[in-house]
Design a protein that fits this description.
44% of the residues lie in helices and 24% in strands. The chain has helices at 10-17, 31-44, 77-86, 88-92, 105-114, 156-176, 182-203; strands at residues 2-4, 24-28, 51-55, 69-76, 96-103, 117-127, 130-139.
């Protein structure tokens, strides 16, 4: 596997220590994070030969490497999409992407579909007070979701995620209610449609 922008190498250490993968390519655009990753792996007691440290931007360090899966986590959705779009030849040789956008997940989904990827499954995980979206992605066609901002996940966190979205969108609509600007009126109608869909989804969770 490859961990793109790994920084502290926590995920590679986890995967190797549990023999989930045989080798990890750890990449980062800067040398500092790679040094930290090396130190953390040395402290872990794991065989350093099971890790490769590659400096470079996005997927470019993986050129010529055999990589089954790549993780791109902790970045904005627009940046993750740009990383995959920026090296289509390298990306096409990777069987699976595990993506964890910190923002703009809807934009990421739309750009993945346009680039010829499908989302095989989605999961939610809590990190402190934040609910994180995790996308399991492979090559192939998929019909876009009705609302690309809403993950197709299950469990109690999905209900919490939807309820927070309902509150956030309700506040946006409230702020737009007194506006007579044409663009604001159009946005209000879009938000109202999103709110109706979310409320229907909440009833089924």
């Amino acid at each position: 596997m490859a961990d793109i922008g790994s920084d502290h190498a926590a995920l590679p250490i986890f995967c190797i220590s549990r023999n989930l993968v045989t080798h990890v390519f750890i990449t980062d655009v800067n040398i500092g994070p790679l040094c930290r990753a090396t130190e953390n792996i040395s402290s872990s007691g794991l065989e350093i030969s099971r890790f490769s440290f590659l400096q470079g931007d996005g997927l470019s360090p993986l050129r010529g490497m055999e990589v089954a899966s790549a993780v791109i986590a902790g970045m904005g959705g627009e940046l993750i999409a740009s990383i995959i779009e920026g090296e289509p030849e390298i990306a096409s040789g990777i069987e699976r992407f595990i993506l964890q956008p910190r923002s703009r997940s809807g934009e990421l989904r739309m750009r993945l579909w346009k680039a010829g990827y499908r989302i095989d499954s989605e999961h939610l995980a809590r990190e402190g007070g934040r609910i994180c979206e995790i996308l399991n992605v492979s090559s192939g066609y998929q019909e876009p979701y009705e609302d690309p901002d809403i993950p197709r996940a299950e469990g109690i966190l999905m209900l919490e995620f939807v309820e927070k979205k309902v509150v956030d969108i309700s506040k946006i609509i409230e702020n737009l209610d007194n506006s007579i600007n044409k663009d604001a009126l159009e946005l209000r109608e879009i938000m109202k449609s999103k709110l109706l869909n979310l409320e229907a989804l909440r009833k089924n969770l």
